[in-house]
Write a structure and sequence with these properties.
Layout: H1 2-9, H2 14-29, H3 31-40, H4 43-70, H5 81-107, H6 117-138, H7 141-146, H8 152-185, H9 191-223
Helix pairs in contact: 2-4, 2-5, 2-6, 3-4, 3-6, 4-5, 5-9, 6-8, 6-9, 8-9
Length: 224
């Protein structure tokens, strides 16, 4: 009955939310080639990938604004309006963080110490894995709506979120290791560079944290 009413009184906001998350993840995923270019000290590639990140973040922003503008205001929504807007905001923060990271790296012409470069790339990739896993979970939201947030679909999404939490834990471990590696050599580096490198390390970790937060918002929907 609820699905019948939903079809009668509204267009699903779920698909646009999934499209937004797809664009957000595309933006975040560009951090991998970006930092590979940083490690290679390829200024041309750094600039090109940073432009891609800015462009994708802008496209995600357009999708966000469009969804907010056209989100039905009536009572016939498959999930609460507030839950959808909260989820949209967290997704948007992921793209914003990726843009901030690339912007700071490029703006300050930052490099990474050679000794931490390979492990740093692994750190970035694992944080991007978290974003990808969050996207997988969001891609199940339409199925959750169809099943009325019941049955095997709930179990599937719960497993996806559990894996997301494990990935985020991995990034925490790697982040501690990289901080330790940087601390061991920081006396040999310009203090201002060290300060901003610690900032970038924190922001890369934030990518995984925000992805986990997407999963947490989805988990709250399951609980309701």
């Amino acid at each position: 009955m609820s699905n019948y009413i939903y079809r009668m009184f509204g267009t699903s906001p779920v698909r646009p939310l999934q499209q937004h998350m797809a664009k957000v993840h595309a933006c975040v995923a560009e951090l991998v080639p970006f930092f590979e270019a940083v490690v290679d000290r390829d200024l041309e590639r750094i600039g090109a990938v940073q432009e891609n990140i800015v462009s994708l973040e802008h496209e995600a922003d357009i999708l966000k604004k469009d969804l907010r503008l056209h989100l039905p205001k009536g009572m016939f929504l498959p999930v609460s309006r507030r839950d959808l807007l909260d989820l949209l905001t967290v997704q948007d923060n992921l793209a914003n963080k990726a843009k901030d990271i690339a912007g700071l790296m490029l703006g300050r012409k930052m490099t990474l110490p050679e000794s931490i470069g390979p492990r740093f790339i692994e750190f970035v990739k694992r944080s991007v894995d978290a974003s990808e896993q969050a996207q997988k979970a969001i891609n199940e939201l339409d199925e959750l709506v169809e099943t009325g947030f019941r049955g095997n679909e709930v179990e599937l999404v719960s497993k996806l979120i559990k894996t997301l939490n494990n990935i985020e834990n991995d990034t925490d471990v790697i982040q501690v290791e990289i901080r330790r590696m940087l601390y061991a050599i920081e006396r040999d580096l310009p203090p201002i560079d060290v300060m901003f490198t610690y900032q970038i390390i924190q922001w890369i970790g934030d990518i995984a944290d925000l992805a986990q937060r997407v999963g947490s918002r989805l988990q709250l929907m399951l609980a309701k």
